[in-house]
Amino acid sequence: SDYRQVFTATEARAGRSEFLMLARHNSLPQHRLGLAVAKKHIRGAVKRNLIKRLAREQFRRLANTSPSLDVVILTRPGARLADREQLARAINELFLRLGLERRDP
Q: Which of 19, 46, 47, 12 is closest to 35 using CA atoms?
């Protein structure tokens, strides 16, 4: 139901050839992340798991700013051809476009 709320009431979106991020405000004290990594776009389980790990790691580095957002990351066909560095850069860029700032490392 939380995913459905983000899909039906999207307040912000950012996209590239590798990913689409959808976001909406939540009433919780922190951001939340949802992942939809489709077999249709990423055939191998190893690459799907890599994408999930990279997304979670980039998400952990975000500052806990207000207002809090529910963010869902969807894969696109371009993710199939991207390497690890390109995927990490794409995820980070999209978080920045949504207005989410990184903490100092």
A: 19
